[in-house]
Amino acid sequence: MNKLLKKIRTILNDRRIRRTMKLVVSVISVIIVFVSTYALILPAITEEKNAACGIEEHQHTDDCYMEELICNLPESEGHRHTDSCYTVKSVLSCDAPVHEHNENCYDENGELICRLEEHVHDGSCYQEVKELTCTIENTTGAFS
């Protein structure tokens, strides 16, 4: 009789452990499904939001730059302007005013009353521009 009771307890204990493990695996599976779904939806959510600075986000390609000779020197024999004749400068291309909220932007309750949008110029506010810095005259016609 004792052997039978021990056997029954063992079977019931094994069943309880299997049921608990099944529940744990199910919960972990549900969490993985929701996290995976969110990870797949996240790029679509960010595509829908408007940029805070008002400039559409994109990667700069060669189409974004224009090489233009801005020097007034006449062309001469013996030299052709190459990339080494130019210096790349960062030029501010953002027209948003710089504004950081300070104590004047909040009322006595700590609520924002300032109507200006907070903006600090960062890397996305600048554009690289090539400028001719060579003093030698170009000899082979207009720059192409």
Report on this structure:
By secondary structure, the chain is of the alpha+beta class. The chain contains 1 helix and 2 strands, in the order αββ. A two-stranded antiparallel sheet has the order 1-2.
Helix content: 25-40%
Number of helices: 1
Shape: elongated
Distance between the termini: 101 Å
Features:
144 residues; alpha+beta; 1 helix
Secondary-structure blueprint:
Elements lengths: L1 H47 L37 E7 L33 E7 L12
Offer a quick outline of the entry.
The chain is of the alpha+beta class and 144 residues long. The chain is built from one helix and two strands, in the order H-E-E.
